[in-house]
Structure formats: C-alpha cells, structure tokens
Predict the 3D structure of the following.
Amino acid sequence: MPGCVLVTGGAGFIGSHIVDFLIESGRDVRLLDCLHPAAHRGHPAYLNPAAEAMIGDVSDPETLAAALDGVDAVCHQAAMVGLGTDFTETPDYVRANDLGTARLLAELAARRFRGPLVLASSMVVYGEGGYRCPRHGPVRPAARARADLEAGRFEPPCPHCGEPLEPCSVPEEAPLDPRSVYAATKLQQEHLCGLFAREQEGIRFTALRYHNVYGPRMPRDTPYAGVASIFRSAIAAGRSPAVFEDGGQLRDFVHVSDVARANVIALDSDAGAAGAFNIASGKPRSVRTMADLLVQEAGPGAPAPRVTGEFRLGDVRHVFADASRAEAQLGFTAAVDLEAGMREFATADLRQ
C-alpha cells in the first residue's frame, strides 16, 4: 500500500473525489492543482482538509519538485478537458496535458521514482466505438462527414457497402483513433507514461480510460462541463435540455464515486493492474435516455428534453465500453446504476 500519494488535479471534479477515497482508506495525500479560472472560482469549499493542498502548475519544474517530495505514488488527473474544437486552442491543450505530463515524468525519473503511476485517460482515445456490418463483420467507419450530419444522417455507414452498422462495445485492444485535439493529447499522455514505465525499471503504469463520468462537483456552464452537467444546469434554469443529433448516441455513463474507487484500486493493485482499462458501467445508454431520467428525477414541472438535430463535428456517434478487463484484472465493477445516479445528481451540488 502506497504511503504519501500525489494527486495532480486534486481540486477538480474527479480528482477531489479520489482525494476523499484515499484519505478514507488511511493514506497521506497531497494534491496539486493550478485552480484554472476556466474550471474554478477560487479555492473550492469541498476540498478535504485532511489533504495537503498545493496550488501550482504541473508544468512548472519548481512546483513539481516541491509537490513530489516524499511521494511514493502518483495519481495524475491534471488536464485541460473538452473537445478542443477550436484549433487555436491546440497549444493550450498540448501545454497543459502533454508538456505537463512530460515535466512530471522527467521529475519522477530524476528522483528514481519506483512507485505506481495511475493516469486519467479517456474513452476519447478510441474515436468511434466498435461496429459490425452484417456482411463484412467488424469494421472501422470513417469520421462522419459534415454533409451527412447536416442532412440528419447521424449513423456511420459501413465503409465497404454503405449499409447500416451495429454498434458494439469497445475493448482496450481496439484501434486508437483520436478525433479531437483533446483526444490526441490524452493518447499522447498514455504514450509518454508507457515509455516512462518501460525505461524506468520497477514502475507500474496504469491508464484508466474513463467513459462518461458524472456526479457531484461537476463544473456547470463552462467548457469543462460534461453533457450531464449541461443538462442539469439547463433544467435548473428552467430550460429544456438540448439533446444534439437525434439523442440516440450510445454512451457509458459512470458515477464519479466508481471512478474514484477505481483509481484507489489501481494504486493498490499488484502487477496485474499494469496497462489500460476501461472504467465504465458496462451498460450502454442513449444520451436521450440519460436526459429523460434526469428530467424525471428533477420532479414535476421540469422542462422536457428537446432534440435539436444540432451536432459537433468532433463528436462520435457511439462509444461504450467492454468493462470485462477491469473486472478480471483489477477487481473493479461499477456499483452505481444510472437510475440511482441520476436520482442523486438531480439535486447534487455542482461547481461554479
């Protein structure tokens, strides 16, 4: 069991829950967070007072040197999130995610770090999820064309015959095909950490590919907000949640408490925890279903979801997890189903 654990991004939505779980399990915890103004308005009131909090940037060598003093395990959550659809933001994503990770790994190498390293990765590294054509078997559809999306043709066709495809769960060994700036930087983080682990004897590196995480402390009304938070904010303001495309996009919604628990399991596990793992419920649900559940739990008078037909070019149609590897090798299964999670989330505190 690790002693002092550093959680980068430990003041954030997921990171703060990881800090709580680690402290509950008896660990000494230090968190490092830059409190980026796009995600925070000052010092969050929910931060666990039992953790040592450091405010600083993970890409700053002096900050890292102080943050890593006495640390023997690292849980790397710090990242700039979102689709990154405006290409002018690319340097910001690369600096925060890739340069920040490179600086962290360089400092760990200089210290001859030999503890576990857990990285927050994402389902976005897959691009589109898995698909099967009745005639051609498993296939990889091309990125959806703007003309098709504008015409309301949201389902990707078979690249060989053009026929409709059946969406399938995506395992960890699926081809990696990032389709946004954010996705590209997350995949690079995995590559950098993987190289570090191969170069440095004794390192156990685990990449946790989060699927659609939701729960208390999600940021509201910012580029960092996930779809569940955007819907929740709309309902609270008396607006109908705007469901893009036709609402049939399949995702795997996983509660933040399950994600935090998965991180603690990965930090504590033996060599079987090395590699990449989908962290998900294993139960695909449509975006429209999630919106309907949230409205239902919000109570009488909550505005019904509105299907808009709008789209974002960087979005993929379906991506949901094969969660069997995490169960078999980590001993992790999600405990919170979507109905119970939405019941809590309908009234949970969100972060300003």
About this structure: The first strand starts at residue 4 and ends at 8.
